[in-house]
């Protein structure tokens, strides 16, 4: 090797040695520019009037009866009701998944991940198709001589849609806890004289309760900040904070929107903090060494246990069956309704005209009109961009958060804050800052909407990469890395050669999550894409929904197909553990 | 079994090294010097700081105070990958996504094999060295524990490290395999003449393989010496009791000089019986009337023989195969005797002054 060659390789070595630090620094910078700066923009706007510091905008929000009662109280109320409904709908599912065996159990269990990849605007449109004036429900009711009922634009519709979204989450978290209950603890209670019910109440319930609470808190956090569902099913009459911010932005009332956003963010942060504190204390319950046995649901194989009477076993099966019907209606209903509505004409006849409309709009639509192809192209492009940004960010964060060092908790919290701050707020901040342009010295820095959208998606998506990769990294024996390093690998090389191959499934699942989140993201996109051609599929669905249900459902079906494809990837690579503790 | 590889001279020095994790202190002011080519063992109960010491040498941790040096080179700023250390862990930490050959060859991605050898030749050579020739294509999980351990050893040695660090490498194996493997490790070590730091909690293993042994306790080094010294001439009560069986007698110093030669011997009064104890050259600061402790190994006690005599009562015995361990009572103290003939009732026991060693 020549002297200059050696010098070059020496420089590369040094670069490689610093690679992890460099990527971490880039991640920090990206977070700063893409998340903290926009949020700060909103914050500054909320505490200044004409450039002078003032508490007036926030004070106005906090003292206004309309905001306090109609907006904040309603937001909290619908979140609380939605949480109750989600727990009520989710718990029986956990019981069935944890305690019974039946064909397709594993598939059903991994299907509970669906809420994370289903675009919320699609759920919303499914509910419109099901509960609307000419929706599936009213058609069924009129067929049996009842109806019509008007569920749209009611609190019930919002709560039901939220339950659709969050009940599987409750099911998933509780099932994991139930499966980790050690059968021997129950057997011990029985041997000490407790009957099955007492043993369940005294031994199993206390072990499930923390998981149920985690699921409920998470549901409350999510539904408190829910946007597209409330927008589509409640409109401005039943507006949550998010919807009202969106309305204010649309009316160019940025200062008021900012003030509202700050108050909402503060509340969300408190809720998320409470959740993380609680979740942190519940960690560590692994798979029980001896999980309780599952009963077969199929009568052919066995009864429900030696000590159960056949009456009881029949009742149990009936209960399971009843729950199955509810699940089918609530979960399949909206999606089937959406698909049906997309191929149904006004007289109830089968038709492809909605899809034809999309094709025609694509061929002849005016430039300001929403076309399907650009929406698909944009969605895929942004999703790809999101992957490129969110994957390295998420992986580096996972590496940092699984290591022990001083200040780790602070970094952890700062890095996970995007989970707690709504897309509306990030979108608003980006719009007001980078997209409208900021002045640095004499030059005006401006970012096009496309870049801002990818940035907002990446910020929303990378925590999911981290949450998929970090648990695997955490269980990885630190001696793998130490062995690699003692053999001459730099820290970065050890990450590439040893850690990443071993947690690859998590990286792939994280990538699928990031992809799906970008595809389905609505909150920030709808703000950043307003009035421009950078709309995505969900935004297109919403714009069609304002005028015609048919094309909106057709567009929704396109979205469903694309989303399903990314779900297949998640299921293929990460189904068995992906998101178990999301 | 000729394995080439330029192993440069390497000494390890720890200069008053301390290590604290927050409130807990893992190492206190540790001084150690490992000579070039030594098989040096750190032994002690769990939590004594032996693994921390190894991790400081490997560079996985940095000392809170003090210095780690290889020869004269200060290692504070040197990352693990630049230290030239081969590490074998208790669970072997074989990369599960790589074949056996890929595992062994991993370190060769960062360093050239010795002059005139290709990487694959080097890998084959190392696998031959640990008697695993032809196993290169296997996956680590297809191997037995002992085989995995040997792969880990080959992997550690492949880049010709200047030091070999072994962290309880055999504690997951069964006793027979352990004995075979430790002899193999010892043979390879002396053939390569590589400075080796070995961590174990098994004092028998420590005595069997080491050139020198450091007994550690509560983050401090209690004693450093040859296995023979550690066994025969323990300096502290802890070392005397930790390594092997021992009988400890506490008494009052009667005379500081009982022998005519330069090393002073002692006369110690234990419960109104006087015992002669070997001189150890450490009598400075001792005075007549001080409370002192000495120890006698169970196999050094003889029935009806020896300079010092006392009569004890047999309480029970354990048959160990080669010998029998007899438990006796002498004036309320328990005394242990190793013998092949099991006595009963009241027995006169004796030992020579040379076999009695004072501990502090």
Automatic annotation (TrEMBL), chain A:
| Taxonomic superkingdom | Archaea
> SUPFAM superfamilies, alphabetically?
MetI-like
Give the UniProt record's GO annotations in the biological process aspect.
transmembrane transport
Residue ranges annotated for the ABC transmembrane type-1 domain, each copy included: 72-275, 376-570
* Keyword Cell inner membrane applies: yes
Task: Report the InterPro entries cross-referenced here.
Answer: MetI-like (IPR000515), MetI-like_sf (IPR035906)
Ranges that cross the membrane: 20-39, 79-98, 110-131, 143-165, 208-234, 254-276, 318-343, 380-401, 413-435, 447-465, 502-529, 549-570
How is this protein situated with respect to the membrane?
A: Multi-pass membrane protein
| Localisation per UniProt entry | Cell inner membrane; Cell membrane
Family in the record: Belongs to the binding-protein-dependent transport system permease family.
UniProt protein name: Thiamine transport system permease protein
Q: Which organism is it from?
A: Halogranum rubrum
Its taxonomic placement starts with:
Archaea, Methanobacteriati, Methanobacteriota, Stenosarchaea group, Halobacteria
Automatic annotation (TrEMBL), chain B:
Q: Which residues form the ABC transporter domain?
A: 12-243
According to the lineage, what is the superkingdom? Archaea
Q: What class of enzyme is it?
A: translocase
Which Pfam families does the entry link to? ABC_tran (PF00005), TOBE_2 (PF08402)
Catalytic activity reads: tungstate(in) + ATP + H2O = tungstate(out) + ADP + phosphate + H(+)
Q: Which InterPro entries match?
A: AAA+_ATPase, ABC_SmlMolc_Importer, ABC_transporter-like_ATP-bd, ABC_transporter-like_CS, Mo/tungstate-bd_C_term_dom, NA-bd_OB-fold, P-loop_NTPase, Transp-assoc_OB_typ2
UniProt key word Transport = yes
Q: Which family does it belong to?
A: Belongs to the ABC transporter superfamily. Sulfate/tungstate importer (TC 3.A.1.6) family.
What is the protein's given name? Molybdate/tungstate import ATP-binding protein WtpC
Organism whose genome encodes this protein: Halogranum rubrum
């Amino acid at each position: 090797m020549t002297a200059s060659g050696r010098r070059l390789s020496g420089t590369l070595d040094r670069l490689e040695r610093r690679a992890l630090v460099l990527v971490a620094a880039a991640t920090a910078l990206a977070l700063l520019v893409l998340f903290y700066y926009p949020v700060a923009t909103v914050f500054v706007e909320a505490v200044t009037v004409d450039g002078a510091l003032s508490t007036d905008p926030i004070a106005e929000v906090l003292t206004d009866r309309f905001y306090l009662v109609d907006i904040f109280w309603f937001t909290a109320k619908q979140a609380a009701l939605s949480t109750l409904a989600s727990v009520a709908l989710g718990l029986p599912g956990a019981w069935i998944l944890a305690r019974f065996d039946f064909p397709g159990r594993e598939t059903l269990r991994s299907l509970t991940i669906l809420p994370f990849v289903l675009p919320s605007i699609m759920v919303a449109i499914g509910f419109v198709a099901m509960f609307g004036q000419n929706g599936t429900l009213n058609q069924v009711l009129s067929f049996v001589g009842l109806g019509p009922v008007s569920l749209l634009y009611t609190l019930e519709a919002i709560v039901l849609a939220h339950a659709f979204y969050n009940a599987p989450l409750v099911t998933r978290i509780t099932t994991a806890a139930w499966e980790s209950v050690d059968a021997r603890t129950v057997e011990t209670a029985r041997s000490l004289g407790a009957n099955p019910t007492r043993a369940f109440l005294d031994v199993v319930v206390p072990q499930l309760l923390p998981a149920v609470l985690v699921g409920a808190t998470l549901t409350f956090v999510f539904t408190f900040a829910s946007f597209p569902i409330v927008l589509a099913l409640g409109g401005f009459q039943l507006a949550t904070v998010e919807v009202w911010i969106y309305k204010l932005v649309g009316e160019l009332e940025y200062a008021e929107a900012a003030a509202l956003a700050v108050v909402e963010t503060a509340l969300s942060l408190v809720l998320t903090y409470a959740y993380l504190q609680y979740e942190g204390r519940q960690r560590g319950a692994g798979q029980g060494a001896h999980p309780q046995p599952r009963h077969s649901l199929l009568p052919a194989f066995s009864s429900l246990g030696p000590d159960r009477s056949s009456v009881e076993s029949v009742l149990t099966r009936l209960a399971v069956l009843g729950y199955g019907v509810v699940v089918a209606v609530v979960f399949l209903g909206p999606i089937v309704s959406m698909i049906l509505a997309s191929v149904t004409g006004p007289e109830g006849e089968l038709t492809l005209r909605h899809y034809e409309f999309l094709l025609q709009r694509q061929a002849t639509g005016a430039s300001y009109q929403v076309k399907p192809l650009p929406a698909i192209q944009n969605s895929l492009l942004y999703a790809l961009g999101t992957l490129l940004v969110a994957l390295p960010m998420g992986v580096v964060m996972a590496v940092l958060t699984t290591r022990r060092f001083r200040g780790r908790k602070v970094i952890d919290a700062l890095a996970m804050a995007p989970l707690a701050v709504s897309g509306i707020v990030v979108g608003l901040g980006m719009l007001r800052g980078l997209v409208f342009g900021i002045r640095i010295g004499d030059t005006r820095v401006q970012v096009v909407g496309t870049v801002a959208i990818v940035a907002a998606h990446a910020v929303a998506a990378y925590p999911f990469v981290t949450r998929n990769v970090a648990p695997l990294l955490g269980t990885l024996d630190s001696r793998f890395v130490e062995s690699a390093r003692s053999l001459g690998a730099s820290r970065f090389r050890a990450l590439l050669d040893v850690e990443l191959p071993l947690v690859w499934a998590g990286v792939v699942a994280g990538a699928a999550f990031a992809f799906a989140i970008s595809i389905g993201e609505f909150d920030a996109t709808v703000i950043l894409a307003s009035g421009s051609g950078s709309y995505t599929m969900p935004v297109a669905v919403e714009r069609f929904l304002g005028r015609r249900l048919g094309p909106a459902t057709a567009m929704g079906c396109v979205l469903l197909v694309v989303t399903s494809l990314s779900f297949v990837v998640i299921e293929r690579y990460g189904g068995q553990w992906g998101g178990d503790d999301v | 079994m000729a394995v080439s590889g330029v192993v440069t001279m390497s000494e390890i020095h720890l200069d008053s090294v301390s290590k604290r994790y927050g409130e807990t202190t893992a190492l206190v002011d540790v001084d150690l010097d490992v000579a070039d080519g030594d098989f040096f063992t750190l032994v002690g109960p769990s939590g004594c700081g032996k693994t921390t010491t190894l991790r400081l040498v490997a560079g996985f941790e940095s000392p809170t105070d003090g210095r780690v040096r290889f020869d004269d080179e200060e290692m504070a700023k040197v990352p693990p990958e630049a230290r030239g250390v081969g590490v074998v862990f208790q669970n072997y930490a074989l990369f599960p996504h790589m074949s056996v050959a890929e595992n062994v060859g991993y370190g060769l991605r960062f360093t050239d094999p010795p002059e005139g050898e290709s990487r694959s030749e080097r890998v084959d050579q190392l696998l031959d060295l640990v008697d695993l020739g032809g196993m290169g294509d296997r996956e680590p999980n297809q191997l037995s524990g002992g085989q995995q351990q040997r792969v880990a050893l080959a992997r550690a040695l492949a880049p010709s490290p200047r030091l070999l660090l072994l962290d309880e490498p055999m504690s997951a194996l069964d006793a027979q395999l352990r004995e075979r493997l430790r002899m193999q490790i010892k043979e390879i070590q002396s053939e390569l003449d590589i400075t080796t730091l070995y961590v174990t909690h098994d004092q028998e293993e420590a005595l069997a393989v080491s050139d020198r042994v450091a007994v550690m306790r509560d983050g401090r080094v209690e004693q450093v010496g040859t296995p023979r010294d550690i066994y025969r001439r323990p300096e502290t009560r802890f070392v005397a009791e930790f390594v092997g069986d021992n009988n400890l007698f506490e008494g009052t110093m009667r005379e500081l000089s009982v022998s005519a030669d330069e090393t002073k011997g002692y006369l110690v009064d234990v419960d109104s019986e006087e015992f002669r104890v070997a001189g150890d050259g450490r009598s400075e600061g001792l005075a007549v009337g001080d409370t002192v402790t000495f120890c006698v190994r169970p196999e050094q006690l003889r029935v009806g023989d020896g300079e010092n005599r006392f009569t004890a009562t047999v309480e029970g015995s354990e048959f160990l195969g080669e010998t029998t361990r007899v438990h006796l009572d002498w004036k309320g103290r328990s005394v242990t005797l190793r013998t092949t003939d099991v006595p009963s009732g009241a027995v006169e026991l004796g030992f020579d002054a040379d076999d009695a060693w004072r501990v502090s």
